[in-house]
């Protein structure tokens, strides 16, 4: 049995603002929706699933909030949280785990919450911008061995593992909702974002500024910054990723991560509001997450 119980949830809010709180009869407490990450489940998928199961609301994840850790039965429970907005709502159905759902303004929500860490999470959210826009920087999925490919490099396609990664990425990226989708003009990048684009019914734009061999760091960063402010995703190459993250952080006056690189099928998500970087998170298409 692992020493750490991984869980995920969201501070779900709507205009007002009002916040969704759930009551759990087993504990007789009020909290934000959350739940354990299933074996092999990605934390982004777990956050969306748990919110929907406990509230009937399909969320769109916003900025990353603080991780909450506490002791539970001699083990550590670690809960990853995001701010989230509703995009679809079904009738709430009480069950054994959650028997009440209420939407409350901030002061009433603070008074109702049972745990100090949830109150701190509410304060953290209120101290920052409410609405943010995701800017995803994605490295293409696996595309076989470059040295084994005999045709033009821009035509090198995803391999079997890469196609599976692209399929997984479609669901994970959908956690942030529809985004403008921009890709390097190479087959491996286009194929990486195609399942997502089909899922959200969005076109894929190709951009030389993100295409290896056709760009330079200044040009790539300038083009990336021009997309900030509305939900957007860029799929590019390992040679370009570090320059984009470094340039984004420098331009916005933020500290660079210790490691700006990405493995194949990994992505950075920068949450932006009014020219400010409010959160930066890194994910892989598989279950591991940092």
Automatic annotation (TrEMBL):
Q: Does the keyword Hydrolase apply?
A: yes
Biological process terms from the Gene Ontology for this record are: AMP biosynthetic process; ATP biosynthetic process
Keyword hit for Hydrolase: yes
A matching Pfam family: NUDIX
Which InterPro entries does the annotation name? Answer: His_Pase_superF_clade-1, His_PPase_superfam, Nudix_hydrolase, NUDIX_hydrolase-like_dom_sf, NUDIX_hydrolase_CS, NUDIX_hydrolase_dom, Nudix_hydrolase_domain
Q: Where is the signal peptide?
A: none
What GO terms are given for molecular function? 8-oxo-7,8-dihydrodeoxyguanosine triphosphate pyrophosphatase activity; bis(5'-nucleosyl)-tetraphosphatase (asymmetrical) activity
EC number(s) stated in the UniProt entry for this protein: 3.6.1.55
Q: Which residues form the Nudix hydrolase domain?
A: 3-127
Question: What are the record keywords, sorted?
Answer: Hydrolase
Q: Which family does it belong to?
A: Belongs to the Nudix hydrolase family.
Please identify the protein, giving its name as recorded: 8-oxo-dGTP diphosphatase
